[in-house]
Amino acid sequence: MAYDWNELSTRVTTWIEDDPDPATADELARLLERANAPVDDALAAERGGGPLSPTHQTQLTDVRGARADLADRFTGLLQFGTAGLRGAIGGGPHRMNRAVVIRAASGLADYLLGELDGLTPAPRVVVGYDARHRSADFARDTAAVMTAVGIEVLLLPRPLPTPVLAFAVRHLGADAGVMVTASHNPPQDNGYKVYLGGRVVTGSGQGAQIVPPYDAAIAAEIARVPSVVAVPRAESGWTVLGDDVLDAYVSTVTALADLTEEARERARHLKIVLTPLHGVGGEVAARVLREAGFRDVLLVPEQEWPDPDFPSVAFPNPEEPGAMDLALGLAGDVGADLVLALDPDADRCAVALNDPTARSHRGPDTAGAEGWRMLHGDEVGAVLGSLVASRLASGTPSGATAGASAVADGGAAAGRTTDDGVPGGGAAAGTQAPALASSIVSSRLLAKVARAAGLRHQPTLTGFKWLARVDGLAFGYEEALGYCVDPAHVRDKDGISAALLVAGLAATLKASGRTLLSVLDDLAREHGLHLSDQVSARFTDLDRIPATMAALREHPPVTLAGSPVMEVVDLATGTDAERQGLPATEGLRITSQDGTRVVVRPSGTEPKVKCYLEVIVPVSRTADAAALVSARKEARARLHAVASDVSAALGI
To answer: Where is the Alpha-D-phosphohexomutase alpha/beta/alpha domain positioned along the sequence (predicted)?
Structure first.
């Protein structure tokens, strides 16, 4: 990274003088001192061409390392991406810290005041936070900045799941919401999600995370903040909410379940292992399950309570290898029927169960040897999508069905709240059929489920900020374990409500001697066996990401698992029809003759290029268990071959 050290050191000094946090100011000051250490003798020795002494080598390495660190921290302000602002905690504009948060809060406040200029009452903003390092500080700074300029701020009472904040935005008729969280990122990270609703965004996007042009407009206001010291901050004046909003969320989610006595009896016979992975979702999820009749719920004791260091996992993401080991081990010990895992802010849900056909022999007394496996996000998405479709078909007046009706009707009139406390906004959506939605990297199975049920299917760009905006949304999901089953109340992914519906379905199936695998088998018989997987390449040199994408455009694979490639679509430059009517986005879609599909795109939250693989194996409608096992083996072998082809094309 090229930079002018004199110019950079001046910017660092200016930032330190403006930093409201002594901890990060001192961190930067120590880095700057290291970067300015005298190395004239070491440089002279280096220019002389002879071998450097260990002392000179150490001096140069330390100074250059400090300067490179500062250059990275000062590459510009953090920008809104797929999941809002997100980055490592530390000093500097390209890190998460109080200075960056105060600037972001000030810019958002100015944007809201501009959008609602001349209107009364004043803008209302709900602020929530998780239990990560500095989350409470960042939330209080946000409240202080917005209160100082006359915005009504409602602060959630304690660290709570992201879905509670998303619910509160609509439930309280807020014009915006802020959630301080880095979701499932490593412990050194934090983040800042922004939702718009109330009078600022109406219609299907009310209460969803920001997308263009809102993000650019807010970023422009942030860029206009001259300094942190120029931003007024109130000492008090915001409202700390009580438990009423949490109680309302729990009541709303619980209403998604079948609460008849027969259903409660089925629920009592399902043994569940639940883990929040050291996050904030355990207590709330356990309460929701309990109120829906699930009495045999065991939380993984090592992961039950919030801990910002996530000590029992290498990476607090249920998708990562090892993250589910404690939960699966406990499930095997107690003979559980179902494992549910939430990510740290509880907006994602992983599901695992015992699948005798998936037993692996990696050693005795392992979860794999016993047959425990985690369902892929596409599998859970298909199961939940088919459940929502069946509810819509039967006219069930609850849960996702009620949500779909509300959204299809366009919501209530724009304003703070309706008489029943549900936020209003949006024009009538007409009489179009409810929609099941999934991102462009998710399985194509949901589209077939929707078509068979007489519903619409809507593909979207990756990220729930896009999925949540689908008109008439009844259910939406993305393969990365995110599911929206109640869009009328939570216009975002919600791991807790998804967990409840999965548990309810599992209990019903158990009562008839079936499991969630039975549903997947039924879907395979009706629509073909769809199997998904992912290949990714992580980069330390971020310049290699666009270079890798460019190389793949120039030389895409010509076959996928032996099947000739029939179509390569550049999602950034392809036609509107090729992009399925979606905005241009960085990525490639590769499809082969046998229906195998690969979507390649840079990650929006990590330094990775991700490749999403899907194969489809035809299955007879009368296929028995043995035929399905054979089809899964064939699909798995093809997926492995596709992964090899894609890895070779990427050079990994």
So the answer is: 79-220, 248-353, 435-522
